[in-house]
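Sample 3 of the quickstart, ligand geranylgeranyl diphosphate:
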Amino acid sequence: MSLLSQSPSQPTLGKPQVSPIPSAAFKRSLDHVAADTEALLDRLLTADPVAGERQRPARLLDAMRYASLGGGKRVRPFLVVETAKLFGVPRRNALMVAAALECVHCYSLVHDDLPAMDNDALRRGRPTVHKAFDEATAILAGDGLLTFAFDVLSRPQVHEDVQIRIQLISALAKAAGVGGMAGGQMLDLAAEGRFGGSPLDFSGVRTLQSMKTGVLLQFACLSGALLGEADRNARVALARYGTAVGEAFQISDDLLDIDGDAATVGKATGKDAAAHKATFVSLLGVDGARERLRKLVVKAERALASFGEDAAILQAAARFIANRRS
Ligand code: GRG
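Result:
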């Protein structure tokens, strides 16, 4: 069953238009969610095994903590917490989903940085996990984080209703798996010409990027609606917002690869052009990509119009994602 076909319950729509949130206020909220997510992950990823586990080997746990703590903007957790807030979901419940999602995101970065994938030495301004530890440990740290996400989502602290937890688990599994992020990564490797084939056109790049990057951001937005048992209209609005924000995130990433400063971005730049990779920027040009980005922000803001002032912070998030420098 698709997320949008699940059963509706409470409407929150129909409010008037919105005054923009200043970027400093937005940044404070983002930092607050980041600090809360960090604290929760720190508590969850301890050396003590929980029921059903034997022990947590120190080297693996250290690598998982290195990959998931002490860095990252925590944009996905922010989207979970703020979309959940639209439906009055308690912050502590939303943070559990946020922490699970961040584990999946961090796993993807660890595996993406491996020599067999993007072969990167720098991530979040620090040595990548396989450089700080070793390749085998990095593979296992990714495996550990991915599976830990589903352990966390299955816990009653996420939501007292097991059906909601199953919906979240199913949605995150699909977003991360063969028809989502892992599938998108496969398309990305193919687009580099590793397995033969021809270069991607615009629609091919859009599909690849929406799978590789967009679906996790869409999950972040829809998870708030799932936690809040939101009605169909609200889910459709958040799905539209998530899709626009997902594409905007990727275009801004492509632009950063061209004009970003590696020290600020926290990873190597210029890699797409060096690999002659088809990206939004290579296909649309820098100005065309900026124009598309601008339109996507408008689309994201409009998608939330019916939530009124309650969604002003999410509108600010769309602007932040488009204008980010790291
Ligand atoms: C290995 C299955 C597998 C998937 C990897 C997400 C991904 C797929 C690769 C990452 C490569 C990349 C740089 C994609 C562009 C978008 C992206 C995910 C950027 C990093 O996300 P941020 O900016 O990172 O949210 P922080 O460090 O802030 O968490």
